[in-house]
Write a structure and sequence with these properties.
Helix content: 25-40%
Number of strands: 12
Low-confidence stretches: 1-5
CATH architecture of the largest domain: 3-Layer(aba) Sandwich
Structural class: alpha+beta
Number of helices: 12
Distance between the termini: 30 Å
CATH topology of the largest domain: Beta-lactamase
Number of domains: 2
Length: 349
């Protein structure tokens, strides 16, 4: 008789409790996977203020710019379907823009946008987004209008020569995906990532139950109402406006981990090899860095000022980690980064 022994998923709640208390954070959540599935997860803290309901593994956190690897993955699936190429130029998709975008952007390709080598202004600060004209029409039309506007601004570095992190570059890439498919970026993410990976907690905008927090002048955390005035413009969603549990985020990382190790998932291994190859500073959608002594780790971090999330994949050591906190700032960044490194080393094979 065949006896199947399933390894128990390790509870990380005690570790997260200690880390959150040490950093003074409202809550933390984390998950670890290998190629076969989840191996550890946990959550600790308050969903809202010091006396709010406790968080659990089932609660979604905002992942900020960790959305970018998902946008890049959507574009990768379109490359696999021959709807785009990595060397497709923006003007190949939007030839009508030739007459009025900056001529320096004429040679910029999809891969340049996804590796932050296009020289497009970041549009990560309020002073930058404040100059964006009022955008009207459908979500596709607003996103396209913003992408067009961004390419009319002077490049911050010579395109295709240097790394310069850009939210706007990802909006341009998303607009290219929307043009060649006729579908919104949100629909493409649902169809090509959330549904096939069964990421049931994933959605757009702020999560409902877990609130982000901003630092108060007295050192206490102030909950930020998800229905309040602070929201990301919808045209910027492809660069950083998704929420989900760390379990679901880790499942997305596992899809990349498996592809990096030679198994086809939502992307084939050949596509993963391109995405995770280091260019000037990053790959396509992911950083490529040394983390906790491991080389060639796929990384990213994300924060929209009230949450912070960090991710890492070490294909060589068959491990991927996602860690989130519902607060931002130096203390939160240090805490989630330290937890990510600790878990990466602890669960590496």
């Amino acid at each position: 008789m065949l006896v199947l022994v399933l390894a128990a998923v390790i509870d990380l709640s005690t570790d997260l409790h200690a880390a959150a208390v040490k950093a003074g954070l409202p809550a933390m959540q984390a998950s670890v996977v290998d190629a076969n599935g989840i191996v550890a997860h946990g959550a600790w803290g308050s969903a809202k203020g010091p006396d709010g309901p406790p968080v659990s593994n089932a609660d979604a956190f905002h992942i900020g710019s960790c959305t970018k690897p998902m946008t890049a993955t959507v574009l990768a699936t379109l490359v696999d379907q021959h709807k785009l190429r990595w060397d497709t130029k923006v003007l190949d998709v939007f030839p009508e823009w030739k007459r009025d975008i900056r001529p320096e952007f004429a040679p910029v390709t999809l891969a340049d946008l996804l590796s932050h080598e296009a020289g497009v202004e970041a549009f990560g600060e309020e002073t930058e987004t404040a100059k964006v004209p009022k955008l009207t029409g459908s979500p596709i039309e607003r996103r396209r209008a913003f992408a067009h506007f961004a390419l009319q601004q002077p490049p911050v570095v010579a395109p295709r020569t240097a790394f310069s992190y850009s939210n706007a570059g990802y909006v341009v890439a998303a607009a290219m995906a929307e043009r060649v498919t006729g579908r919104t970026w949100e629909t493409l993410v649902r169809e090509r990532i959330f549904r096939p990976l069964k990421m049931m907690s994933a959605g757009f905008g702020w999560p409902e139950r877990v609130w982000g927090h901003v630092a108060g002048g007295d050192g206490k955390w102030i909950p930020s109402d998800p229905h309040g005035v602070y929201r990301l413009p919808d045209y910027l969603a492809p660069c950083g406006d998704v929420h989900m549990t760390s379990d679901d985020l880790a499942e997305f990382l596992r899809a990349h981990l498996r592809a990096m190790r030679g198994t086809a998932t939502i992307i084939p291994p050949s596509t993963a090899a391109v995405m995770h190859a280091k260019r000037i500073k990053t790959g396509l959608g992911f950083g490529v860095a040394s983390v906790a002594g491991f080389e060639n780790v796929a990384t990213h971090s994300g924060s929209a000022d009230t949450f912070i999330t960090v991710i890492a994949i070490s294909a060589e050591h068959d491990v991927a980690v996602a860690v989130s906190a519902n607060a931002a700032g130096d203390a939160a960044q240090h805490a989630v980064g330290a937890m990510l490194r600790e878990l990466l080393v602890r669960f590496a094979r």
